[in-house]
Amino acid sequence: MPVRLLKTVSGKSETPLPSHLQKEDLKHLQEGFDHTNKYFKGVVVLSYPLMKLGDGTDFFKVVLQDLDNWISRNNSINILLYGKMAEDCAKVTRHGDTFAVAGFKVAKSPTAREDGRHGCHLEVSEEAGSTIYIYTVSSTVSETASVSVAPKYVYTPLNRLKDGTVVNLYGVVKFFKPPYVSKGTDYCSVVTLVDPSNVKLTCTLFNGNLDFLPKIYKVGDIVRFHRIKIREYNGQMQGITSAGFASLTFDGTVGAPVVPRTSSKVYTFMDEEQKIIEELRVWADSNLCIFGPAAKLAGVQPMIFFDLTCQLVGKAKVDGSSFLLKVWDGTKCPYPTWKVPVEARDLEGEKTLLHQLRNLTVDILVYDNHVQLAKSLKIGSFLRIYSIHTKQASSDKDDVSCIEFHLHGGTCYGRGIGVLPETNPDVKELKVFLGSVDLADSQNMESMSSLELDSTDLESHLQRCQELSVTVLTDHQDLKDTELKTILNSRAPQQYRIRAKLRTYEPQKLYQCIKLHCSKCNSLWEVPGGDDFDLILQGSAVTAPNLELHNTSWYDSVMWTTEDQKQRKITIHFVKHDEMVQQPEDTLIMIEGGTLKEIWKLTKRFKCVIPVRSTEDDLELLDLSAPFLLQGNIKYYGCMRCSTPKPIECLSSIAAEQQPSWEPTEIARVLGIEPLQYVFVMKFTLVDGTGTLNAYLFDYEKFFQIPASEILTNNFLQQKMQMTMNTLCPPGRKLDDLPWLECFIKSYNVRDVMKQQVYYQIFDTTVAEDVV
DNA sequence: GCTTAGGATTGG
Question: Any atom of strand B under 7 A from CB of A492?
């Protein structure tokens, strides 16, 4: 049988290859050598579709990589299969399978120069007497194979590790030190893992090449280690790199795409492994408290340690043991920040940008072992700086004390600097945010005194947060506090007053907490993204404007064609009042064929903008996933379940009013739209020493004293909210140092398909006035 | 050439 699928059990082949066959090394594969009784073994890293050659012969090409030779650069080779063998193999081959090829012919590879693979390729066919043994990693082998197959690698749970063994394992990162320059010859990274066996394993990983160390960016990431050596150290198991160590790292977020981060071009990764990652994510999500608040510069306070995701704008040498990094994250630190004096000629970075961002960048002084890495950083790169220390210090000049940012020497608590790739989701998000920062705004921010805390008030402010509650009740003041334990043991529905600390909250990315709520059917909707709107606009621009609908008794119409290649037709209908077009700031306009950008521009000038399209006999609203109205910065949406849009004609009734106010609710009513309201929806994890309780915040405006409708389009309000959350739940603080919250909560029952559950909701509570 | 670090902040 020329193609044989071999059963593998516990990583070892149950069916050994015939004893006369000997393994051939990649470097011995040369034309003219005798390869009888030799086999070449490698992992399928690439396969091409099955093809038919000119003469009708089946042809299949795979690329094998020699894993035993994994350090060598040129370790892959093309295998060309012909005839029935091509057909058979194409059916069962999966990436990650191991091929042992015997009875091959070696020939010069005509594509070696282009593909960078081995100078020769191997040709195999039944006719030539070749045999291919496939060790498949697939768990769903087709029927024709008629063998059962186990995964190739065996993974050891962390509670089954034995001294002196080399194992493969999975784990959730509980702690890590980003790679740093060790005192020896290598980079070092220390990683502590946990898994569902609840055993911890600290691994010390070395490599001279940074790329070969796991690409861990945050606690909660999941890693797969291959060939890690286990040793006993101080009575505990310890992991250490051994020859051939390889790692994959995955985002630990439940539901995120399962894409491994790795430097190695070859790795096995199958459905089975995907399942393991997904299971570990779910386990970690409910068993580990690992997602601390992500700090922004807007949220820093004196005397904390925090991790910062930022972009490098400038750098400068300071002295032998310290180095300056100028970074920004788009938000403004609420306190005056320390500026490290450096010679202008020592400062690297784009001068104009450094000047433009001068109010948004902060100076971080890094010391000792971090200097070398800091020096090598590229301006513009995205960084995560771990365990920055903020210190309050008064400068000699005057009494103004400011915040200093230090990255002290050493690697305690994972202190260090990591470079994030552009593909990192946090970087992608940061880029969007940085792009949205209005630089003119940030310069004006100096005058926004409401945000600037006088540093002399700083201590008292912090102290106040410690003692008093950072939230206050707007009602029920006479009620006594109830312990969380009591609430958790009571039946719903009831109402309680509580005093608790906010241990964590979700979502951490605050813009994600904004949803759209229909008060009629009680449904919650995600806020559509700008791209969705753009797509709908593009789709509607295809409909030609109906000239018969232009210039009616209640609106005047203007149409023009764009001068670009697309020759788009744009129509604006100006709604009249008293047969006159009003001042732009009082006018409602309807637009056909406009782009997202054009519509935004128009909202700045006109009171209301309604995107419409023509039908045969009336103008109509676009799809309900597009806003039915734009007013100022706010997009108004209608409920897709409860709305029954009426013809635009109905708007004329408002236009005829004595003094049309163009209220969104009124516009919605006449157009048959059930308007959705913007709400904050958050989950607060509250603790009080007697228990932990998750309570939902469902708030239009009252709690934060910020309208939910304005958050998404207003950087300033976003920062204000971030600061509020940072006061309620300061990043980098121990539980003891968290402030108290006074809340009013109600419990209620929710019947699920399977069971009845009790939920809790915060209400009649607001953030204390002197906190924001 | 066979080590480096082995988690556990606060100085400049």
Answer: no
